[in-house]
Amino acid sequence: MTMRRLVTCCLAFFAVWFFLSEDSPYAKHRLHGGTYQSSAERVYAVAKDNFSWESISPTEELIWTDCYSDNQCARLKVPLDYAHPDGASAAIAMIRIHSAVPHDSPSYRGPILLNPGGPGGSGVDLAIGRGALISTVVGPEFDIIGFDPRGIGRSTPRVSFFASRAERAIWSGNFKKQSLNSSADALPHAYARGIVEGQLAGERDDGSLRFINTDHTARDMLRIVQAHGLEKIQYWGFSYGSVLGATFASMFPDNVGRLVIDGVVDSENYFATEWNNNLMDTDKVWMAFVDGCVAAGPNGCAFYAPTAAELSANLDKLYASLRVRPIPVRTNTSFGVVDYSTLRGTIFQALYRPYQLFPTLAGALADLTKGNATALFKMSETPAFECACDPSQYRFESVGEAGRAVLCNDGKRISPDYEDLLAHYQGLSNSSGWADVWEHIRLPCLAWPEFPKNHFQGPFVANTSFPLLLVGNTADPVTPLWAANKMSRGFNGSVVLTQDSAGHCSLSGPSICTQKYIRQYFLNGTLPEPGTICAVDAPPFLVSGSDAGVDGHAQAFLGVPAEDRELLEAVWKLAKTFDLRFPTGI
């Protein structure tokens, strides 16, 4: 192919992606079901260097190779099918943020494994982007280990339903995730696409797809622990990572050293593929925005109204306006249309990350009242598709269907009949006003291949070798505190630590109280007293008349002892940048 033709080809794919992109490997919303370079992965963006994962041969022993400046990487060889361990193998990609204390020091406490949720989230990306901050939280005595679960990111074999990146981009770009109450045909259309995705999964399966599930990933984690020469795990799992952690604790109760699950999912509901009790506290998070905005006053919140009722009415006017007349937007990097579904999805996104997005959302809503949708568009703007002249350049990129594979393989088979989907959606709508966003989760599973469902799916009951610590927020949009209390009852001696804040998982809100408890749990095994509630150190919105100062929240630093300032700074940075989606794709 001549250079001219090659450039023309690249530009053509670029244009298609630019015009159509939404749920791509680079799409922003993880409306709950896969990993791709979303706003989350833009936060965890990996600096390019000369390191290549292909340069590491998978081995059954941990062999660390220098990578990404001063970190170490490895690829651990594990059985693809643990029922036949001598058969085909998988390779689990891992990265280590080295402890600040030497490994031969009596202070060294070993590795802590991380899972950022999803399913489909990349632990490697999490460790590269936020590992140093998490190390500050838990203390210098630990290595931080990020790993990509099997089928995901840099771990192989990788899940892929598409023949090429371009095919995936075109399919994804041809469909912008619509609110399911945005039009009469929104649900039927989404249903039809879900059927196609399930069919593609079966048709393009190379034989490895059925082994991409939480059961096998839990077994992989035990192999990672044993490859370190240890028998008991230390683990911090967020969101879907709580399902993975609860599965590990139930399957291997004697191998629990320290295990934190944060933003806790009702694992029984997850494995039943019901997804109908996640939204219990979603409205509480929205009211945290409303009440916080009213309290902050016109100088602290751009979308201010004197009362909660007036503010809510103003939002309803925006919804109604966009239903009738979407707004075209052109920025210096892209272009698109802001409609009712855009507004619904962007608000739902903001509920996950109040400290990062509530002030931005308020400004965008204020602009929208004036007919300017640029700020709102930028909150969901996606990078343009880049075609690969060298396909190996993207061999290890995260793709959306990987998370959907875990979700559909894990869960109970669901009916492919449209009437049954409609009944589920109507039932969810009766319990939550956010069903139009949430129902998308189950759709790829409608025509999923009929693999055997003989993997572990509970019960989640265990007398673990060390008690679990469960962490939940009082107002979490997708993992209600109720679920943490329910799951705790199955694990003898476990304790629920409550953080009094809005947002998804504890790191969505800055609380040195919470993170000190987590640090002490890892360091010396101390559990908080049952019923312990931790406050956050400041609200997402500045209260009118307060001192702005550092990051606009100087009051949070006042009176903090010198020894806690590094921890508080790390907690604030995490609250303003940590983006977890459950599941990826919503």
Automatic annotation (TrEMBL):
Coiled-coil features, chain-numbered ranges: none
GO MF entry, a single one: hydrolase activity
InterPro entries per the UniProt record, alphabetical: AB_hydrolase_1, AB_hydrolase_fold, Pept_S33_TAP-like_C, Serine_prot/Carboxylest_S33
Pfam families referenced in this protein's UniProt entry, alphabetically: Abhydrolase_1, Abhydrolase_4
AB hydrolase-1 domain location: 111-280
Residues covered by the Peptidase S33 tripeptidyl aminopeptidase-like C-terminal domain: 434-534
Protein name: TAP-like protein-domain-containing protein
UniProt keyword list: Hydrolase, Signal
Family according to the record: Belongs to the peptidase S33 family.
Signal sequence bounds: 1-21
